[in-house]
Amino acid sequence: MKIIRLQVKDFEGLEALDVLPGGGVNVLRGRNGTGKTSVLDAIRVALTNRGERSLLVRKGAEDGLILFELEGGIRGEREINRSGRVAGPLTLTNGENAVSRAQTFLNRLGGGFNYNPLDFIGMTDAEQTKVLLDLIAIDVSRDELLALSDGEELDGVDYDQHPIIVLGEIETALMELRRDTGRRARDLEGMAEDLFSKVPPDFDREHVESFDLEAASLELSSIEAHEQRIKTAEASIQDFEVGIQRVEGQIEALLEQKRSLVEQKQQAEARVGQLAAQDVGNAGEIRERIRTYTQDRKHLHNLEMSESTSRQAQDCRQEYKGLTQRIDDVRRKPAEILSSSELPVDGLGVDEGKLTINGLPISELSTGEQLHVATQIAVATLGDLRVVLVDGVERLDPGHKEVLLRELSEAGVQAFVTEVSDEALTIITDFETETFDDVPF
Fold first, then answer.
1. Could you give the CA distance from residue 42 to residue 48 in angstroms, rounded to a whole number?
2. 3-state secondary structure at position 140
3. Complete edge-to-edge strand list for the sheet that includes strand 354-357
4. How do beta strands 360-361 and 426-428 pair?
5. What angle do CA 354, 359, 361 make, to 5 degrees?
6. Strands 90-94, 74-80: parallel, antiparallel or unpaired by DSSP?
7. DSSP track, 394-433
8. How far is the C-alpha of 98 from the C-alpha of 91, rounded, in Å?
C-alpha cells in the first residue's frame, strides 16, 4: 500500500502543498528552508501522530491540516495544533465508511517512517549491529544460553541482551576461561617436573612405603637402654676399684671388707659379662636405617606431590578440552539460530560473535554495500504501507546517491528522498516534475 495524494496546510515550513507522489522514488530538491524535510515530517505526522520538531504549526498560523489518501480508498485528515510533538485528531475513512480507532488502524499498516537508511552508514558497529538484531526474531530461551555456559552465568556476560550478542560474550568468556585453565595446567606441569627432579634415580619407593618407623624406633630405644645399663655397670666397676684401692691401704683393718668387695666386684663383672654376651643388635646400624628412612621420606613426599600435581595438570587439560568443545558449540549456535530465522538482509552471518554480511564485518563493507544493507533493513521494517522516508541524500557522492535511489526503486517501495539544491522546492516523482513556489491549498 502506498500514498497516492498528500495535501498540507500551515505545517512546519510549508504554507500549502498538494502533490500526487509516484509509487516509486520521489526526490524532493530545494534550498535549505524550502520545506523538503517538512514534507517528510508531514507524512510521518499524518500517519503516526508524532513529529520530529517541537512546533508543528507554521509560524504565524493558528493551526494546520494534513490530508492524505492511500491506495485502496483510504483517506485521512489530521488536524495540527500547537501543543507540541503530538499533532491532533485524526479522521479516517475507508471508502464510504468511517474507521473507528483510526490511529490503531494506521499503526497496524506500519511503515519505515522512523528509519532513515542514510543514518545506518554513520552508525557505530554496535549501533549497526543493534539495528540488524532488532529485526531478527529469535526464540532462544535464557536456559538454552545458560546451558552453553555449563548451566551457570559467566562473569562479563549479560544474558538479558539479544541472543546473538549473548553468544558472542559467552564465547569471549569461555576463551578467557580456557586461556587461564591452560596457563594453570602449564604451571602445574612445571611444578610436577621440578618435584620429580628432586627424587634420586635409585629411589626405592616400595622400601620407604613399607618401612616400619615405629618398630625401628622401639628397637633402637631398647638397644640404647641396654647400652646405658652396660655403661652404668661399668661405672660401678670403677667405683669398686676405687674402693679396693682405698681398702688395700687399710688391708689389715679392712681385710674382711676387701673380701666382700672383691666378691661384689666379681659379681658385677659376671653381670657385665652376661649383659655383654647378650645379642641385642647394632645401634649404629639402626640409627643409619632411621636416618636413611628420614631422608627417603622427603623423596617420597616429592614423588607423591609430583604425582598429585600431575593429576591436577591432567584435570586442567581435561577442563581445557571441555572448554574448547563448549566454545565450538557456542560458535556454531549463532549460525544454527540464523539458519532457522527469517533474515532481513541477504548474506547475514556471524563470525566470532560479530555480525557479518557475506563473510565481512559490517564496518568493512563499502559504502555501496552498506547502502544495500540499509535499504534491506528499511524494507524489513515496513508493514502493508510500503513507505520509506530518506532525509539528506546530498550527504552521498553522486555515485552512491545513484546506488541508493536504484536500491530503493528495485525494492519496490514508495520512497520520499530529500536533497539540498539551489532551487525552489521541486518534487521529482516517477511520472512528472512539479515546482512549488506558492501553490494554494
1. 10
2. coil
3. 348-351, 354-357, 360-361
4. unpaired
5. 45
6. antiparallel
7. GGS-HHHHHHHHHHHHHTT-EEEEEEE-SSS-EEE-SS-E
8. 8
Q: Is 90 helix (H, G, I), strand (E, B) or coil?
A: strand
> DSSP of 338-393, one letter per residue?
HHTS--SSTTEEEETTEEEETTEEGGGS-HHHHHHHHHHHHHHT--SS-EEEE--G
Helix (H, G, I), strand (E, B) or coil at 32: coil
Cell triple for residue 298? 622427603
Query: Structural domain boundaries of the chain?
Result: 3-114+383-435, 210-287
Given CATH 3.40.30.10, say whether it is the number of domain 3-114+383-435: no
Question: Would the CA dihedral through 140, 144, 148, 151 be positive or negative?
Answer: positive
Q: Is the dihedral of CA 262, 267, 268, 270 positive or negative?
A: positive
Per-residue pLDDT tens, the chain, 441 aa: give them. 899 999 999 988 889 999 999 999 999 999 988 888 899 999 988 988 877 776 788 888 888 899 999 998 999 998 887 665 556 788 999 988 999 889 889 888 876 556 778 888 788 888 878 878 877 777 788 888 888 888 888 888 888 888 888 888 888 888 999 999 999 999 999 999 999 999 999 989 898 889 888 988 998 899 889 989 888 888 888 888 888 887 777 777 667 777 788 888 888 888 888 877 777 778 888 888 888 989 988 998 999 999 999 999 999 999 899 889 888 888 888 878 877 777 777 888 877 667 888 888 888 888 888 888 888 888 888 888 899 988 888 888 888 888 888 888 888 888 999 999 888 888 888 634 455 554 333
Task: Tell me, yes or no, if the pTM score tops 0.85.
Answer: no
Please report where in the chains the cell 542514510 appears, as a residue: 118
Closest residue by Cα to residue 405 from 114, 125, 24: 24
Neighbours of 426 (CB within 10 A): 17
